[in-house]
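ingest -> fold -> write
write: protein_1
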Amino acid sequence: MRRFPRPGRSARRAVGPGTVVALLAAALSTVGAPGAHAAVSPSTWYTLVAANSGKCVDAASAATANGTAVQQYTCNGTTAQEWQLHPAADSGFYTIVNQNGAQPAIDVDGPSTADGAKIHLWSDGGWSSQEWRPVQESGGAYHFVNHNSGKCLDVPGASTADAVQLQQYTCNGTSAQSFSLNPAGGGGTTPPSNPDNPDLGPNVKIFDPSMSSSSIQSTIDSVYDSQESNQFGSDRYALLFKPGSYDVDVPVGFYTQVAGLGANPDDVSLTGPGIHVNAGWSGGNATQNFWRDVENLSDTPSSGRLEYAVSQADPFRRVDVHGNMVLDDVSSGNSTSNWSSGGFIGDSRVSGQINSGTQQQFLTQETSMGSWKGSNWNMVFVGDNGAPGQSFPTYTTVDRSPTVKEKPYLYTDSTGLYNVMVPSLRTNATGPDWTGGSTQGTSIPITKFYVVKAGDTATTINAALAAGKNLLVTPGVYHLDAPLDITRPDTVVLGLGLATLMPDNGVTAITTADVGGIDIAGLIVSAGTTNSDTLVRIGPSGSSADHSADPTTLQDVFFRVGGDVAGKATRSLVINSDDTIGSDLWIWRADHGNGGTVGWNTNTAANGLVVNGDDVTMYGLAVEHYQKYQVVWNGNGGRTYFYQSEMPYDVPGNASWTPGNGINGYASYKVADSVTSHQAWGLGVYCFMSTNPSVVADHAIEVPDSGSSFHDMVTVSLGGDGTIRHIINDSGGQVTNGTMTQYLTSGP
């Protein structure tokens, strides 16, 4: 029986052509078309051609009465096969009306939500059963998802016969649900760009299982050939795999993200050689293997071992490894100087053994592992399953992560629509957040994001933020002449392919209000050649609001001063908001790079991290080579789980490197004298005073004697170049030429 309008839902009011144009413009305002596509004109009609049969969607017998079957039929150029898309009230949905009569709409009988429900014409009543979301496929065709049922327009049994009435059916990606949308008569304009399938630009490579293995492999190889040794280049790439299985070889080079687009890691399965990172480009030494990313997929390497020879800024998140892992270069033939200096594995599962090999230090967090082998100076395990027990040196094992929020990720749902999942805040967390079922969190449709692409400026991006949009930043380097100003609570800024922000003219790249729930992830922030006082500022000075229930979070955000250009920044990251969480942050003043970009008076930078907020927590913090204190912590209640730091290599001498008061050198980690509580686990501070090996630092860590609790610390004089006299305050032995490593289990 035909239903009546739902209570509280009025029939669609009639709209004129001008109104339709305005609605369509609004619906498309935040996305780019797949190519140079114009908007649909309300006076243009289209044919819908079924991919499986080549036949047209047709109003049976050219009828217009309510209940007329919508069928497939040999294309004949009549108005019974011409359709127009009217934007619905909800962004991304359209009512599809026929050319004939009073323009009845394609409708699901009932309105049913069941598989097999018939499709017919009915007078346009504004019902959700008459609203369809066109989801563009990789080949340019569309499948149409019903607003009421979430099911797809479908040719029953993939029939190729005339007069087969269409139905709705669970979306399955087959050709029976794929339709091309063509201007009637071959004229008119191109179909609408789909807000659920926005243009992500030429450097986002999206793979699906229908593509040939050879074409996928060719794209992967081409990207790697350009990125294997491209340490300070400007190219950025994201290789994204839609749900399915792939037999591929995926070497991961600089500025390359490899990620699955499933809701869960095992929705994307890689076999064959799969993911691997070595250091063949540098003779097997992986200590400069930076800036790459693997996440949200499963990998069953044919060798039984996934090689991930990385150092800083190489996150490995939400990955299900069916086999073993090794974290140094074992494939380039160098077994004597194949050093590696990582690193971070989070929210993952490794069925076999993780072998750290030559890794100097490493953090695993909320990860399940069959076992762990290896150690060097500072191996830290937080909230893991299967980790080795506490035994320092060199293992620091913390049972749980007290407060943590995993990184947001892009995924496609069962209908092929793009969304971003923002995982929920976890307390006392252990193990991955996805092994017990779907990740808990908030799914945000891609229509709520502004897609930042080449040509965008601070003006266009800030306009999107002011309009309430989140940001999806596609691979590229974006020069900013003003800060990106984030003021809305729970705003998500997610970078793809190590997208990079560079502030020009001394501005700050990102500023936030003192509001909760902001999530910034997957970005490099690289200083420009005019000094910035601050690169990123979380909360204004004097922030004091309590955000413990909804903290601002930074995941996989990497800072760079020099190396690519002669960058300058007094402070890289300043955190004023209370309760902020950082996860896998590398804050780096470059010690090497392109010619003319590195030097004591060239890439100047005083401090890497300054924390003024209370109850700030850091997991996986690395800060290196700044010219004064690497870290200055002024807030109470701070916590750090894993810290890695090298003092600056290029100190001219102690006369120019002192905070005064008779102290030699700047400590790496400085907690202000006014702080009453601070805790830290697993800290390593190293010196390599290559410019002047006689330089001395009195302390690696300086903290108040009361209220501070530090666990498991190590200092190293690399090659014996330079001296650190004490580990924390005046505790811990000296490292210098002849005694190059010292450990301390607690202090001060």
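write: protein_2
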Amino acid sequence: MNINTNITESLIEEVQATKLGRLLTRDELNRILAHSEVQYYPVDCVIYKQGKVSHGLYILLSGKANIFARTMGDKIAKIDIRKAGEFLGEICFIDKEPSRTYAIAKSPCKCLFISSGYTELLRFYYPETKYKILKAISIQLCQRIKSMHDKVNEFILESDMVSLSLFGRVIHSLTHAKEMTFSQSGINEEQLLQKVLFQHFSDDEVGELLHHASILQAPKNYILIHEQEKSACCYIVLNGAVQSSIMQDNKLAKLSVIGPNLLFASIGCIDKDSKFTITFITCEKATLLKIPEKQLEYFKQQKPELWYKLFELICESIVALGKSIDKLDVRLHIELYNR
């Protein structure tokens, strides 16, 4: 599967300057370059199309690209500007669904294209390299989410959105969850193994996960991850539902609802330095598997193969947030357009 890319020292330096390149060893970088393709796009050329499934990942080596979304009524919302060193088409690459955005070269662009087929091979033969790709994507997505988070906060401050009532805040503060070990929960492990999410792992790995996780039985309106909470943790929804939101000045901007058999992760799993967070609140009675920061760190240090698989799910949850953020951005464009 060699693409015969001409691997020059200048190309190596260009890739080393990217978000991904800074995480890779020289051997990993050379291996990726041997199975990737350099592509060039003139000004105003479409790099990837909305509504099409991506067959790979683009890394912008030089130039700038505008990211747009075409909305209902054929309105066009400008979502972002990408510059050298950043990924293009990363959301579609992860979720393998038709892209909700499209990219156009703002200036002449040089891209490195890594095929999805090759990254799937990395999962089996070089899982640490695949992990580094997902980590770099997650870091970029968190930066995008933070930018949109700040934009939404400004919108909330200037809007006449209804604040949460004092009664509602009191209800949030009074709700309590019951935490227990998996063995205490009475949940059938065999039934759990049949769920699609757990089929990512071997039986031994599932046992390891369950041993280090706890079961949380939470009532409706229970806050799982608070505003400004930066600890790294993730949850798997076993039943019930959880709502992700941006909270500012006692006002909520809803992002998405997360249902059973899905994992969601705190922003702290990727970004512990900046102050922004996404809030997660149960929107009905829910049972969840909770994996706290200490146990995530244990998997990372002691169980790397399990950690790489778990991180794929964490990355998918960050991608889901990124998609919700983009949809909110489009809604804000429409709101501002209609004012």
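write: annotation protein_2
Residues 165-171 have pLDDT under 50 and may be disordered.
The domain at 144-337 is CATH 2.60.120.10 (Jelly Rolls).
pipeline exit 0
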